[in-house]
Amino acid sequence: MATAMAATAAERAVLEASLRFTLSCSGTGTEAPAKQENFILGSCSTDQVKGVLTLQGDALSQADVNLKMPRNNQLLHFAFREDKQWKLQQIQDARNHVSQAIYLLANRDESYQFRTGAEVLKLMDAVMLQLTRARNRLTTPATLTLPEIAASGLTRMFAPALPSDLLVNVYINLNKLCLTVYQLHALQPNSTKNFRPAGGAVLHSPGAMFEWGSQRLEVSHVHKVECVIPWLNDALVFFTVSLQLCQQLKDKISVFSSYWSYRPF
């Protein structure tokens, strides 16, 4: 009975985490589209980039970005094409891992009774693995090379098209939606700079170099703006709560197993 109650508590916490994604998880029977939310991006260190991103579940449905060029103060404006959406793979992957955790917890009859402590431990290990993977997708953005960013479909989302000397990347970091704009300049063939292509990184620094097509390019300016997504913050909290409940249940099972296996002489 105690194990069933604890498992139910863990299931409730995981369900709560899934609701924070504002997306219906598979098998819930509620497939209403996620609402649109507008987020204003900003930074305390720069006003070179300002923008509004519209998030709908795990996709960016609209983007409106203004960039003030440092050298001549020229103002560039670019926005998503009306027929385009950009999937945020991190949110989608995290949602899928949460859905799998719920499936593992709920895929049994209500009258089902766990037979052994080992059975519960195995279930909790599987659930915790999915929850950890979900949390890691939000807390650990992908490290990308500059050519990978340049080749991303995100660069083709905008109208008017991005200038050839700009790169854009969007990602989730913890509870924040981040937008990074890289300004580039071409290295001349007779440049005396030692060309060393940069490796993968979440955020590249000025001076990072890469080769794209027949050109060698260098990052001259980096502009990063971000905003907090409240429901992502809630989801991270419930991931922590869910993992704690699962671990507490594992600890209790281990204690009881040790007690029942004890044989005094």
Structural description of this entry:
- The protein is an alpha+beta fold and 265 residues long.
- The protein has one domain.
- Helix content is 37%, strand content 27%.
- It starts with a helix and ends with a helix.
Query: What characteristic shape results from the CA principal axes?
Result: elongated
Low-confidence blocks of residues = 22-29
Count the beta strands. Answer: 10
* Overall mean pLDDT: 83
**Secondary structure category:** alpha+beta
What's the tally of helices?
5
What value does the Rg take, in angstroms? Answer: 24 Å
Topology as H/E string? HEEEEEHHHEEEEEH
Spell out the blueprint of helices and strands.
Elements: H1 2-19, E1 36-41, E2 49-56, E3 59-68, E4 75-80, E5 86-87, H2 89-106, H3 117-139, H4 146-151, E6 158-159, E7 166-173, E8 176-186, E9 209-212, E10 215-228, H5 230-261
Antiparallel strand pairs: 1-2, 2-3, 3-4, 3-5, 4-6, 7-8, 8-10, 9-10
Helix pairs in contact: 1-2, 1-5, 2-3, 3-5
TL;DR of this structure?
It is found in: Cytoplasmic vesicle, Secretory vesicle, Synaptic vesicle. Belongs to the rogdi family. 37% of the residues lie in helices and 27% in strands.
Structural descriptors:
265 residues; four-stranded antiparallel beta sheet; elongated; alpha+beta; 5 helices
